Amino acid sequence: MLEIDSVDTYYGSSQILHGTSLSVGEGEVVGLLGRNGMGKSTLVHTVAGLLKPRRGQVTFRGRRISSLAAERISRLGMSLVPQGHRIFPSLTVRENFRIASRRVGDRDWTADEVLEYFPALRERWSVPAGKLSGGQQQMLAMGRAMVCNGKLMLLDEPTEGLDPQTVGRMGEAIDELRRRGTSALLVEQKVGFTLERVDRALILSRGQVIYETDRPQLLRADTQTLRRLIGVSSAHEADGSRAIADENESPVG
Question: Three-state DSSP class for 5?
């Protein structure tokens, strides 16, 4: 589904990704963990076409996409839930859904199905998105990506700014995406939340994948590895507070 092969990405003269390689298989949900500033969001932006790698290649559904514009990549079947609630603030919730909606098959998401997971959006259906709370805007960003019905979803910190109840609903939505066979790359700070619902987990450090496991539940219990690679003593600690940033980290990603 997705292949990232030896990618180098820069912001100006600063190199953020250093020969980064990873893959997401058909129907697979992959979790990407790491401390702040290690390049996770940069990786997502590179895959989505918002940044162009200087070296290496990104391949999506057998097609090289590194040189394509973000709009072209989206039309190929990739959906992005960006960090920072990037919605259309002057449009209502309904209009945001309508613009994003794209149905192909019988198992595709409808707006009504998405609203079952995020009922607060139903209550604000006719309200301009810019007047929603930060958490509601995050729900809307997720809902828009769901009704796009892409083959691959890129989820960049989807639980950021959400209350615990809505985090639970977000998790249920991701679980249902997995049941429907949608591939996903989930970038998160909440370690326990991530490891509960992914098929494979990777840890990114200074722009490189330094750890990978296809047994994420075992990593959840591996306090020594979590402390050494992410800076938390347990998955519960990471979910209950901000991940600890190393003083030498880059401010990007």
Answer: strand
Residue 74 corresponds to which amino acid? Answer: S
User: What are residue 29's DSSP bridge partners?
Assistant: 184
User: Are 47 and 79 a contacting pair, CB within 8 Å?
Assistant: no
Interatomic CA distance for residues 131 and 125, integer angstroms: 12
Sign of CA dihedral 48, 54, 59, 64: positive
Sign, Cα dihedral of 220, 225, 227, 231: negative
pLDDT digits (tens, 9 = 90+) for 94-131: 999 999 998 766 678 999 999 999 999 999 999 999 99
Q: Answer for the pair 23, 4: CB distance below 8 angstroms, yes or no.
A: yes
pLDDT band for position 161 (50/70/90)? confident
Residue that has been written with the tokens 């997401």 in this structure: 24
The two tokens of residue 121 are: 């959006």
Residues 6+ apart with CB under 8 A from 188: 31, 32, 33, 155, 157, 158, 159, 194
CA-to-CA distance for 203 and 201, rounded, in angstroms?
7
* Separation of alpha carbons 3 and 126, rounded Å: 40
CA distance 222 to 31: 16
Q: Tally Cβ neighbours within 10 Å of residue 150.
A: 22
**Helix 134-148 with 93-100: angle, nearest 10 deg:** 30
Q: In whole angstroms, what is the distance from residue 102 CA to residue 146 CA?
A: 9
Determine contact, residues 36/204, Cβ cutoff 8 Å: no
- Per residue in 23-67, pLDDT (tens digit) is 999 999 999 999 888 999 999 999 999 999 999 999 999 999 999
